[in-house]
Structure formats: structure tokens, C-alpha cells
Amino acid sequence: MSIDPSFSIVISFLGFCWIFAKKVYPMLTQKLDEHIEAVKQQIAEAEKLREDAAAALKKAQEKEGEIEEIITANRLKSEEKIRRLREENERLLKMLRERHEISLKTQLEAEVVKQKNQLIDRLADLILKKISERIEETDYKFSISLKKEDLNKLLESNGKTIH
User: Fold this and answer.
1) CA–CA separation, 123 and 149 (whole Å)
2) What is the DSSP letter of 161?
3) pTM of the full predicted structure?
4) DSSP alpha helix (H) spans, 138-147
5) How far is the C-alpha of 16 from the C-alpha of 137, rounded, in Å?
6) Are 128 and 151 in contact (CB under 8 A)?
7) Is 115 strand, coil or helix?
8) Contacts of 123 (CB under 8 A, 6+ apart)
9) Which residues contact 132 (CB under 8 A, 6 or more apart)?
10) pLDDT (tens digit, 9 = 90+) per residue, 78-94?
11) Which CA distances in Å does 35 have to 29, 30, 40, 41, 78?
12) CA 83 from chain center: how many Å?
């Protein structure tokens, strides 16, 4: 009996299909199911991460708004402090200028008094010198000694003084 080659191919094919259906197909479907499940878990994790990221972004935006409010409040406080410090500096500068003016005025008055006293002393010396010269020009035979103190006594008796 001779077997037709096409019949042996059909038998071989059916045998292959049966082995494939019993051994390979369940293993293949199991691996595909595991892969599908892993992909589903990855998608679920990605979705959860996306939701977490959206929540974190929302919180970050809220915090950013709060920080902006704090920055604005601090900026206003800083500007107010700067304004008050400038006013205080201006007040202190004005006070220092006034004190300096008073000090300069006092120094100037003291210098004027000093110069006046020096001029009066020089004037007294010149008056004594002139009087001494006049007395020497005349032929009086008596000696007169004029000192500044004597001249002051003479002027005091008339209501005037030379310092």
C-alpha cells in the first residue's frame, strides 16, 4: 500500500495543528494575556502618575499664588520701611545741619569777639603809643607812665573800657 504524499502532508499538518493547539497555543495565549495584563498595569500606573502630576501641578500653582501674595506683602512692607527710613534720615540730616549751623554760628561769634578784643587791644596800644609820643614831644620835665591798666581805669571812670 502506498500512501499518497498529499495525504501524508495533510496528516502531518493535522498533527502539527493538534500539537500546536494543545501545547503551544495555551502557552502563547497565557504569555499574551500576561503581556496584556502588564500593559494594563503600566497604563493604570501611568494614569495614576498623570493624576498625581496634575494634583502636584495644582498644588504648585496654589503655592505659587501664595508665594506671590507673600512676596507682594513683603515688598509693600519693605517699601514702607524704606520710606520711613528715608524720612528718619532726612529728619536726622536736618537736625545735624541745624546743629552744625548753630555750632558754626557759635564759633563765628566767638571768633568775632576774639577779633574785636584783639582790635581793641591794638587800638589801646596805638592810643598809648600816640599819647606817649605827644608827651615826649612836649618839654615836660615830669615822667608819665601809661599802662593799659591805667588807661582802662581812666576810661572806666568815664564809663568806657578797653579790654
Assistant:
1) 14
2) -
3) 0.43
4) none
5) 167
6) yes
7) helix
8) 162
9) 146
10) 999 999 999 999 999 99
11) 10, 9, 9, 10, 61
12) 13
**Is 148:124 a contact under the CB 8 Å cutoff?**
yes
Q: What are the CA-CA distances from residue 153 to residues 45, 118, 123, 148, 160 (Å)?
A: 118, 19, 16, 9, 9
CA of 92: how far to CAs of 95, 101, 130, in Å?
Answer: 5, 14, 56
502557552: which residue's cell? 27
Give the tens place of pLDDT for each residue, 3-60. 778 888 888 888 888 888 888 888 888 999 999 999 999 999 999 999 999 999 999 9
Tell me the DSSP string of 43-105. Answer: HHHHHHHHHHHHHHHHHHHHHHHHHHHHHHHHHHHHHHHHHHHHHHHHHHHHHHHHHHHHHHH
Nearest to 81 by CA among 93, 70, 89, 92: 89
Look up residue 160 and give its three cell numbers.
Answer: 568806657
Within 13 Å and on the Cβ side, how many CA atoms surround 29? 6
Q: Give the number of residues written for the chain.
A: 163
Q: Return the half-sphere exposure (C-beta side, CA atoms, 13 A cut-off) of residue 41.
A: 6
Q: How far are the Cα atoms of 25, 95, 101, 105 from residue 108, in angstroms, in the given order?
A: 118, 20, 10, 5
